[in-house]
Write a structure and sequence with these properties.
This protein is α+β, with helices and mostly antiparallel strands. The protein has a domain at 3-266. Helices cover 24% and strands 25% of the residues. It is built from ten helices and 23 strands. A hairpin with a 2-residue loop joins strand 19 and strand 20 (394-399).
Length: 478
Amino acid sequence: MLHAGVGRTTITPPLDTPLIGYGGRVRGADAVRDDIYATTLVLSDGNTTVALVTCDLCALPIQQVRNVQRLIEERTGIPPAHVMINTSHAHSGPLTTYNDETPEGLRQVVISLLDAVAESVVQAAAALVPCQIAAGKGSVHASINRRARNGYSDAVTPEFPDGTVDTDLHVVRFDGLDGTPLAVLTSYACHPVALRPPSHEISADFICALRATVEPQIAAPLLFAQGAAGNLVPIGPDMEMEERLELTGNMLSAEALRVHASLGAEASHNLESPATPGADTPSTHEPCAARGGEAIPVYESTISPGTEAHRANSSLSVSSLGDARLPSSTGGETHLPPRPALAAAAEILLLDLWTDQPPLEDATRSHQTFPYLQAPLVNGKVECAVQALRIGNVALVGVAGEAFTEIGLAVKACSPFPHTIFLGYTNGCLGYIPTAEAYNAGGYEVHRAHAVYRLPHTIAPESAENIISASLRLLAAL
């Protein structure tokens, strides 16, 4: 029997706390437009427990993610490999970084924030009740590809003449066995940047408008998980800030409510004996064609486990080998027992740097965007966490960076699961993860943004392919 619990803590910082996401801000927060939260869903099948933590924050460095995961394990017993922490990337969120140079007062603000994030998991773990779930997907064009708008050719293809976007709005509904709403998980790919300087208000951006509309209608908390939004921003870039915020939130909420209502008759879906992922789906080790008639970029998995490009410090936690087929001693096939409802898998990739990159003349202003940030460097390579969670026939896979939307589309197209949700900004944020095609086209994400994240160079052009390969390996392991 699957159990679910939901927890929410307020993480709104004191006024005057620095906001991160833009380098041009001249002071700390001067107002609270809307409170910001950490909202957590904990799931348990009696053998395995996993936690999905969603935060109204711009980013959490991998060092702070590890601190939060340690607190969660100490207080709930849930191991780090089973805890997925996703940040919305709202650019009106507070400071989340600190190092030896951080003033003590600001350090305590960040430490208190991290503690509150962990407490949302404690709340959720204490509220477990039997549940049923249903998953679906809508479509809404609430984002645009900013690289296409800025004239970069890599964003435009014959299939996407206005620039590649991901219109998928994922909805997973969690109800009690009596139909009482417990929570709804929504995921969409779009930078929450409707608010921008000169605004110095604390806000969850358009996620606040989404939440304010959906939660009263469903009578349960909404978790928003950010997708592969590295090159996507809300529609209406020339609108006034509040108009753009409300428009984006209202478009997402209307579609989320429509999909949520359509799942009502399906909410009795039983996860105790889920169908085996992978049946009648493309191999995760071969190029994948588009599904449903939609043209998706094709990537081939070429990185093998055990190579240096694959990983340096991997942790794999899978609750069962599942209903896999293995060769037997007689040359036939041996069928393993059906997979349980929940499983988790995680890796740490070490990505090479693009050392042939043209030098950046002045990175001083860029450092104002994320003050006190420590780059995730290990022996000259960049740490990148990749994690996958399985909830029956739903899979979530997250990567620790600002993944271009083409990466998320490629993973979803090749996934063996009927419902796959790809997340960026998860368990850390190393900076932008462009596709290989973007390097020739250039632009901010390729040539300048690494300085924002305190990296000496952008990650190497093959990084996107390595991340896609790792994502598909983890999905296969579930």
